[in-house]
Amino acid sequence: MTIGSNFKLPCGVTLKNRLCKAAMTEGIADSNNFATQRHVNLYKKWASGGAGILLSGNVQVDRRCMEGPGNVAIEKNSYLDQVETLKKWAAAGTRNNTQLWMQISHAGRQTPGDLNPNPLSPSSVQLKIPSANYGVPIPMTVDDIEDVIERFIFVAKVAKETGFTGIQLHSAHGYLLSQFLSPDINLREDEWGGSIENRSRLMLRIIDGCRAELGDDFPISVKLNSTDFQKGGFSNNDSIKVAQFLNNAGVDVIEISGGTYEQPRLLGFDEISVNKDRSEVRKPSTIAREAYFLDYADKIQEAINIPLMVTGGFRTSVGMNAAIKSKICDLIGVGRPLCAEPLVLNDLLAGTIQELPSFEKTLQIGRWWLSPSSPFLLIQALNAFSQQAWFYIQIKRMADNLQPNLKLPIFKAFKENKKLEKMMVKELN
Fold first, then answer.
1. Gap between the Cα atoms of 51 and 59, Å rounded
2. Is 77 helix (H, G, I), strand (E, B) or coil?
3. Contact (Cβ atoms closer than 8 angstroms) between residue 69 and residue 424
4. 3-class DSSP state of 254
5. What is the pLDDT of residues 334-363, one digit of tens each?
6. In this structure, what are the phi and psi dihedrals at residue 215, rounded to the nearest 5 degrees?
7. Side-chain half-sphere CA neighbours of 24 within 13 A
8. Which tens digit of pLDDT belongs to each residue from 14-41?
């Protein structure tokens, strides 16, 4: 078995290989939060890049609670106005026998305050990040919860009807489904909070509803935190229990990730934390491994028999193939390299290269105290978010049928991305 081997999912769908473009925010929806021709352009390019699966950026189920102003949102009252574009997006992303799965999400308390100062969340626990604006969340009523369940199922149905070949429910990185899973955020005392069984109830209800609507032969994936990397939050043990629930619910793939906005290990920044006193410390041996979440994958394999996808840090074909051959995971997720070199997986699969580019190793605002290793937390964070903006700008360039600009300074990318976000917010308001 290698990354080039095909793979059959429990639902019966066969993937052409073991590589997946991980979900990354595109930020290219229009002012109505509809999909556009830019999505078609972008995914046509990625579908030529060799991946067996393309995961979309997070498609929101509620326009009132979005991760950012450029998200696609699908709602009952307006979805017909973007159906044709969704079909074109799906057709572009399924070229070359490629699977295109829609990642479906709700931002909950991680909705920026300039989009909604009072977003919905399981409890009124505000996200507090220095220099960032997040509102005070409103605890969801039972009616709100039932509405969210219906919204997820509806978007899943639209995904299938418009030609997407699978879905992924985003239950990681601090978004709504993972907010319910976290005892740190979910302080409810009703049937939706307390025990891990109750905290999982929302996600499991959504999965049951999606399976009923989509049928047994349609791939359903879940992106799940291995941990929040935060003391008192969603733990490894919690995650393994939830994975067992997903195993019984008939999920086809679990993608392993970790972290939240407050503990952004998902970006590969181990030193950055909003609250260092509550941050879980990872062993140097764990950090040094090529993929961030392989230790957890080792543990979870003993508890479930669902295919696992690991995303985060894989760069070499040797490391990827070793993980596949040892059956630590079944699928490999790749993100940031595809923002700047969208066709590079073809070369990896062909054996003409042995390692994917690691742009993040050289992207920095400046040297010494201006670098990612600066002793100043603010400078560390600025480097992290400037790197993130650099990748966002490359995605937007490809969506406009332009070549990635590898010489773009990251602080310039940060300012450019902020400017674009402000313009989009203004258009929405």
1. 20
2. coil
3. yes
4. strand
5. 999 999 999 999 999 999 999 999 888 889
6. 90, 170
7. 29
8. 999 999 999 999 999 999 999 999 999 9
Residue with the two structure tokens 């489904």: 177
Amino acid present at 401? N
**pTM summary value:** 0.91
Distance CA 182, CA 187 (A): 9
Residue holding tokens 């073809």?
Answer: 346
The H-or-E segment that residue 391 falls in is helix 377-399
Distance between CA atoms of residues 428 and 3, nearest Å: 42
The confidence band for 235, taking pLDDT boundaries of 50, 70 and 90, is confident
Q: Hey, which of 107-116, 258-267, 285-294 has the most confident mean pLDDT?
A: 107-116
Tokens of 66: 């979005």
Alpha helices in 189-325 (DSSP H): 196-199, 201-214, 236-249, 284-288, 294-301, 317-325
Q: How far apart are CA 218 and CA 84, in angstroms?
A: 21
Write down the pLDDT at residue 392. Answer: 96
Cα atoms in the 13 Å half-sphere on the side-chain side of 137: 25
| Number of residues that make up the chain | 429
Q: Give the pLDDT mean for 213-225.
A: 96
Between the CA of residue 87 and those of 31, 34, 60, 142, what are the distances in Å? 19, 12, 17, 34
Q: Write down the residue that tokens 């392993």 correspond to.
A: 256
Task: Report all structural domains of the chain as residue ranges with CATH numbers, in order of start.
Answer: 7-357 (3.20.20.70)
